[in-house]
Specification:
This protein is mostly helical and about 270 residues long. It contains 12 helices and 3 strands; from the N terminus they run E-H-E-E-H-H-H-H-H-H-H-H-H-H-H. The termini are far apart.
């Protein structure tokens, strides 16, 4: 008996020969005697697809951003709580400086991870949170820098300039913070329109230099235990390697000719 190759589920005769040929066709759904069942591979595929659809629906929800925003404020909320209860350790200035610096690097790494994550997990909706994470990286960097200016140096500009010149880790940290300023200022959809997609992307590649400067600043700052800066450095290196891999893959598959202007939607800066 010849069975035509069909793309959808097909009703076939429940004969051993028919079933064997149908199974070899790769169709995940088999109907016999009016009943249907999914083959194990097909059931797993449908389950994974269903989970991805649910996750994408959640990521698209307008109600997800407020709790993510509040979660991003948790570190500064914890600092405020500890300050009110006198639990900022014996050296509160150093504690605040280290905490805000750690969270600056964490949010920089999270911002860099958005593009690889959305491509590897096939969840394009993750792009909705990149701008928020980037702005929180700048927020904690500003707190880190302000702590050094106001609480550590008491606005002694001459002393601060001397530190920037003499201490390499301060020079590197200051450089990283300065590089974050244009990223924060041009993070809106209005700046995308003013600069154009290509120039806007070129400006926002400064985040790579910011991440490297932050890791080097942290590594030069610590005197003995370098595990945390090395950990952050490994994450940044991995994310940069993934970015280069995606770029090379896109370059190989892109047809020859004039490179079109990148089209950035408001979703990418929402």
């Amino acid at each position: 008996m010849n069975i035509p190759a069909l793309e959808g589920p097909t009703v076939i005769q429940s004969t051993p020969l028919g079933l064997s040929r149908f199974a070899r066709s790769g169709n995940p759904q088999v109907k016999t005697c009016g009943y249907s069942r999914l083959a194990p591979d097909g059931a797993e595929h449908h389950a994974k697809r269903g989970v991805r659809l649910v996750v994408r629906s959640i990521l698209r929800s307008k109600w997800l951003k407020p709790p993510v925003f509040i979660l991003c404020l948790a570190p500064v909320g914890q600092l405020a709580w500890r300050a009110l209860h006198g639990q900022l350790t014996a050296n509160p200035i150093e504690y605040i400086t280290h905490q805000t610096g750690d969270w600056t690097i964490i949010f920089i790494v999270a911002t860099l991870a958005v593009t690889p994550a959305r491509k590897l997990l096939r969840l394009p909706e993750l792009i909705r949170f990149r701008r928020m994470l980037g702005l929180f990286a700048f927020f904690y960097g500003l707190l880190h820098f302000s702590t050094w200016i106001g609480l550590d140096k008491f606005f002694d500009w001459a002393d601060m300039l001397a530190d920037v010149r003499k201490r390499p880790f301060i020079t590197m940290g200051f450089t990283g913070f300065v590089l974050m300023i244009p990223l924060a200022l041009t993070s809106t959809a209005g700046w995308i329109r003013r600069l154009g997609g290509k120039r806007w992307l070129a400006v926002h590649r400064l985040i790579y230099a910011t991440a490297v400067a932050g890791v080097v600043h942290y590594y030069w700052l610590v005197k003995s235990d370098v595990r945390k800066p090395l950990f952050y450095g490994a994450l940044v290196a991995l994310l940069l390697v993934l970015r280069v891999g995606f770029w090379l893959s896109a370059r190989r598959t892109k047809p020859a000719g004039k490179t079109p202007e990148p089209k950035l939607t408001s979703v990418e800066t929402a």
